[in-house]
Design goal:
With 302 residues, the chain is α/β, with parallel strands linked by helices. It contains eight helices and 13 strands. It folds into three domains: 64 residues, OB fold (Dihydrolipoamide Acetyltransferase, E2P) (Beta Barrel); 160 residues, Rossmann fold, CATH 3.40.50.300; 56 residues, Probable gtpase engc, domain 3 (Ribonucleotide Reductase Protein R1, domain 1, Orthogonal Bundle), CATH 1.10.40.50. The relative contact order is 0.13. The structure holds guanosine-5'-triphosphate, magnesium ion and zinc ion.
């Protein structure tokens, strides 16, 4: 006799998944038949809702992965036809995390995260960690992002600054920390969830890059309700299944201009009477954001 129950995947490694079923985490195998089905996306990741068959109350098998409501995914790094690499499924918000130093802030990469969040309809929150470190003099980029509508939280896992606001933002939601290695994602989760004690690694001074302390993504239940995912640091971030003519929609500040361009299929890169380029010249659209748009266009397959 087998009983069918639904659960939430909180950890997924090759061959096994940990599924939360009624407050209990149960290790499950994935049914062989599921693994053989052809697909261009990950079969089962954290955040997935699954149907588990409990055989004899002993062996547990995932028999079905339910359709994903949302996701945070990218094109799997490497050559070839490509495949979708899903980091977290069914999330409400993305905590895009960078630090004020060690490693350095990277606006180009931030814009890629934001484009993916827009494309996948997941609310982005920009988390700037290590606020205790000396901050670069020019903070005008903060205003740029806030004026577009993206919240920017200044926090420090070291001193505790801003953590109250962060905790409030997490309440009742499924959230995921994403960002480069070494920015302090696991350190922040340790502060928000005392007792968890996730491994953290010091940032190698030489490269100013993280050492990839977190290797496997996991989902943790929050005492205030909701779930929080820790993910491994990301070095490469390419969009998946984002048609090139939809890229401009993923830059919200272009919305009011792109319909005013003379050419309906304007790419906003070289066309005459382009309302977007005009707005960049007038300073109504931030030049760095526009530069990110142009770079992403170049990298997006037609
Ligand atoms: N000064 C300072 N250092 C911090 C802060 N938060 C984290 N760190 C340090 O930054 C380093 C990296 O922290 P982690 O939490 O491992 O970073 P991560 O983003 O989880 O890195 P990966 O797991 O590799 O992706 C550690 O040495 C932390 O002690 C902070 O607010 N201020
Ligand atoms: Mg980590
Ligand atoms: Zn245009």
């Amino acid at each position: 006799m087998s009983e069918l129950v639904q659960g939430l995947v909180v950890c997924a490694t090759a061959g096994f998944v940990d599924v939360l079923i009624d407050d209990e985490v149960i290790q499950c195998r994935i049914r062989g038949r599921l693994k053989k089905e052809p697909r261009d996306t990950d079969l089962c990741v954290i955040g997935d809702r699954v149907v588990v068959s409990q055989v004899d109350g002993q062996t547990c098998v995932v028999t079905e992965v339910l359709p994903r409501r949302t996701r945070f995914s990218r094109r799997q790094p490497g050559r070839g036809p490509g495949k979708e690499d899903v980091l977290v499924a069914n999330l409400d918000q993305l905590l895009i995390t960078f630090s004020y130093g060690r490693p350095r802030f990277n606006a180009r990469l931030l814009d890629r995260f934001l484009v993916i969040a827009e494309h996948q309809c997941v609310r982005p929150i920009i988390v700037m960690n290590k606020a205790d470190l000396e901050q670069p003099g020019d903070s005008s980029w903060h205003n740029t992002y806030e004026s577009i509508g993206y919240p920017v939280l200044n926090v420090s896992a070291g001193t505790g600054e801003g953590l109250g606001v962060l905790r409030d933002a997490l309440r009742g939601k499924i959230s995921a920390f994403v960002g480069p290695s070494g920015v302090g994602k696991s350190s922040l989760i340790n502060q928000v969830l005392p007792g968890l004690e996730l491994g953290v690694a010091s940032v190698s001074e030489h490269h100013g890059k993280g050492r990839h302390a977190t290797r496997v993504a996991s989902l943790y239940a929050l005492p205030q309700g909701g779930f929080l995912a820790d993910t491994p640091g990301i070095r490469e971030l390419a969009t998946w299944a984002l048609p090139i003519d939809e890229l401009d929609r993923c830059f919200p500040e272009l919305t009011r201009y792109r319909t005013e361009c003379t050419f309906r299929s304007c790419t906003h890169t070289h066309e005459p009477q382009c309302a977007v380029i005009d707005a960049v010249h007038r300073g109504a659209i931030d030049r760095n954001r526009y530069e990110s748009y142009v770079r992403l266009r170049e990298d997006t397959p037609a």
